[in-house]
Write a structure and sequence with these properties.
alpha+beta, 5-stranded mixed sheet, 30% helix, disordered C terminus, Actin family, ATPase_NBD
C-alpha cells in the first residue's frame, strides 16, 4: 500500500484524499489481481496492467472411456423446433424491412449483379488483418524425454506447481511408435477449443449462460474443480504468480449480474481457499463500469458472449428491480450468421458444427468481428472460410457472404437468434443452507412487526432459484429497465446516460475502480 512520504505531515486519511488514483494503482497495483468471469471467456490481470489476459473459460480433460462425448454440453443441447424456425423467419423479415433489404425468400427485382451493396473489403483495416488467419489443431501429445526435463526447469525458474500436471501417467499403447508419447491430462484456453474431435478428450465449460454449468452430467463439485484449475493455470502460466507468492496478493472478483449468492460464495471459496489469495472483494460488472466511467448514475448495457444484461445504477447503488437478463449474446450472432449463409447457399458444402467442433465457432467469431455490422442496405463481401476435418489441415474456401448486417439485428429481434437450450441448474443448487437469509421464518410479534409474514420477504437478495431471463429485444429491455427506476427525474437522468460496455473495456474500468482502502478490512465487511 502507498504510504505518505517521511517528510510529509499528512495523516494517512489525508493522504488518501489528496493522492491521485493512478499513483495509488502504480504503487500497489502490482499485488492486486482482477478476475472477471464470463460464460465464454475469463479475463485476469494485474491492476497495473493496461490489458488483461483474455482466455476462453474452458478445460479439456483426457478420458479413457470410449463412447463419451467430446463436448459435455452436447448432452444438453436440443434441436431447433419448427415454431422457432417460423419465428426466426418472421424476425428476419422484420429486420430486413428496417435495413431496406429483400425479405428472406425474396430476391432482388433488379438481380444480384446490380444490387445496392455495401462493400466492406478493407473497410475496417484492424479487422482485415485477422480475417484470413487459419487455426491449427492442438498437439495433444508431449514427448516423454522433453516432458521429464521441462517440469524441473519450470519449477526451478518459476516454482510452477502445475507444470507437472502437463506430464500425465497415461500412455498411448495402441501404436508402438507412439509408446514414448503421452497425452496431456488437461488442456486449457484456446488450445482446448482446437482439439480434434477424434482425440480422447472431453471439453467442459464451467459457466454457461451466466450460471455455473451444473447438470446431471456435470456435477457442482466438478464445476468448481474446473474453475479452480483454469484460474490456477492462468495465474501460473500467464501472470507467473506461484502458490507461495499468492498470500501477498489480493483479488478483486468482478461477477456478472446473472450470478446468484451461492455462485458468488463458491467463487470466494475458490479464490481464498484453493488459489491462496490473502483477501478478496466482489464487485458487480455494472458498478465497475459506472465508476470506471467516472459516473455515479447510469444505465449499463453489457453484451456478453452468451448473455446480455441491463441494469440501472443510482448514486453508486445498483437497483435490483431494474435488472434485465437476456439469454443471448455474441455466440448466438455467430450461429445466426451461419444459418443465413446456409439459407442463401453461400456457405461451402463443408461440415461446420459449432457444438461438436468448437474450432468452427472460433472461425465464425472471427468472421463476425471482421464483417458484421449494422448498416442500411445490402451488405456483402468476399471472404475465406475454412473447413476443419478431424485431424486434417484446414482447407480454405473462398465464398461471397451476404446479409452481413442481419445477424447483429438479432439483439433487437431475439427470435432471430435461436440459442441452444440448456436446462437451468437444479433448484437445490441455489439453496444455501448456511445462509440464514434464505430461511423463511414465520414469526408473529403479537400484532406488530411483520404481521406473521416471512421475515425476509422484502429482502432483495439471496434468491432460491435462478434469476429470471426475459426473451425481449435489447431496446425494449433498456426502456423497461429505466422505466422501472421509479422517479421521473431519475428516469430522465438514466435515459441521458446509457453506457454500452464490452468485456475488455469493462476490465479496464474495473482497474480504474480498484479499491484504494485496505482489501483485508473490506473483505470482512
Amino acid at each position: 500500500m502507498a504510504k505518505p512520504k517521511p517528510n510529509s505531515h499528512l495523516s494517512w486519511q489525508d493522504y488518501l484524499k489528496t493522492v491521485a488514483p493512478t499513483q495509488i494503482l502504480s504503487e500497489r497495483g502490482a499485488n492486486l489481481v482482477v478476475i472477471n468471469l464470463g460464460s465464454a471467456n475469463v479475463r485476469v490481470g494485474l491492476a497495473m496492467d493496461e490489458k488483461p489476459f483474455n482466455v476462453p473459460n474452458c478445460i479439456a480433460r483426457y478420458i479413457t472411456q470410449s463412447g463419451k462425448p467430446t463436448v459435455v454440453d452436447q448432452m444438453l443441447n436440443t434441436e431447433v423446433t419448427t415454431n422457432q424456425h417460423v419465428d426466426r423467419e418472421r424476425a428476419y423479415n422484420s429486420a430486413a424491412s428496417l435495413l431496406k433489404i429483400p425479405f428472406l425468400d425474396e430476391s432482388s427485382s433488379s438481380g444480384s449483379a446490380s444490387r445496392k451493396m455495401g462493400r466492406i473489403d478493407g473497410y475496417n483495416q484492424a479487422s482485415t488483418i485477422k480475417k484470413d488467419s487459419v487455426f491449427t489443431w492442438t498437439d495433444v501429445y508431449e514427448d516423454e524425454k522433453i516432458s521429464l526435463a521441462s517440469p524441473a526447469e519450470t519449477s526451478a525458474d518459476k516454482g510452477d506447481a502445475s507444470a507437472s500436471e502437463a506430464v500425465p501417467d497415461v500412455t498411448d499403447s495402441k501404436d508402438t511408435s507412439e509408446s514414448k508419447r503421452k497425452y496431456r491430462k488437461m488442456i486449457f484456453g484456446e488450445e482446448a477449443l482446437k482439439i480434434s474431435p477424434k482425440e480422447p478428450y472431453c471439453l467442459y465449460h464451467p459457466i454457461r449462460r451466466g450460471h455455473f454449468n451444473v447438470s446431471p452430467h456435470y456435477s457442482a463439485q466438478r464445476v468448481c474443480e474446473d474453475l479452480t484449475a483454469i484460474l490456477d493455470w492462468i495465474l501460473l502460466e500467464k501472470l507467473h504468480i506461484t502458490h507461495k507468492e499468492r498470500f501477498s496478493f489480493h483479488a478483486v472478483i468482478v461477477v456478472p449480474e446473472t450470478f446468484d449468492t451461492r455462485e458468488i460464495k463458491e467463487m470466494l471459496t475458490i479464490v481464498l481457499g484453493e488459489l491462496y489469495f490473502n483477501s478478496a472483494v466482489v464487485h458487480q460488472e455494472g458498478l465497475s463500469a459506472v465508476f470506471g466511467n467516472g459516473l455515479t448514475t447510469a444505465c449499463i448495457v453489457n453484451i456478453g458472449a452468451q448473455t446480455s444484461t441491463v441494469v440501472c445504477v443510482e448514486d453508486g447503488v445498483s437497483l435490483p428491480n431494474t435488472e434485465k437478463i437476456l439469454p443471448f449474446g455474441g455466440e448466438d450472432i455467430c450461429r445466426c450468421l451461419l444459418w443465413i449463409q446456409r439459407h442463401y447457399q453461400k456457405w461451402p458444402q463443408i461440415n461446420t458444427d459449432v457444438l461438436a467442433k468448437p474450432i468452427d465457432m472460433l472461425m465464425l467469431n472471427q468472421l463476425k468481428e471482421s464483417f458484421c455490422e449494422i448498416r442500411a442496405g445490402e451488405l456483402e463481401t468476399v471472404a475465406t472460410v475454412h473447413s476443419y476435418e478431424e485431424g486434417m489441415p484446414a482447407v480454405p474456401h473462398k465464398t461471397n457472404l451476404t446479409s452481413l448486417n442481419v445477424p447483429p439485428m438479432g439483439l433487437f429481434y431475439p427470435n432471430l437468434l435461436v440459442p441452444e437450450i440448456f436446462p437451468q441448474p437444479p433448484r437445490q443448487w441455489f439453496q444455501d443452507y448456511e445462509n440464514m437469509l434464505e430461511d423463511t421464518w414465520n414469526m408473529d410479534f403479537g400484532g406488530g412487526g411483520n404481521m406473521g409474514l416471512p421475515m425476509w420477504d422484502s429482502f432483495a437478495f439471496s434468491p432460491s432459484k435462478p434469476k429470471k431471463e426475459e426473451k425481449i429485444g435489447l431496446a425494449e429491455a433498456i426502456t423497461s429497465s429505466i422505466l422501472s427506476a421509479g422517479r421521473i427525474d431519475l428516469r430522465r437522468k438514466l435515459f441521458s446516460s446509457i453506457q454500452l460496455v464490452d468485456p475488455e473495456n469493462l476490465f479496464f474500468y474495473t482497474l480504474k475502480f480498484s479499491p484504494c482502502t485496505s482489501l483485508k478490512s473490506c473483505a470482512t465487511m
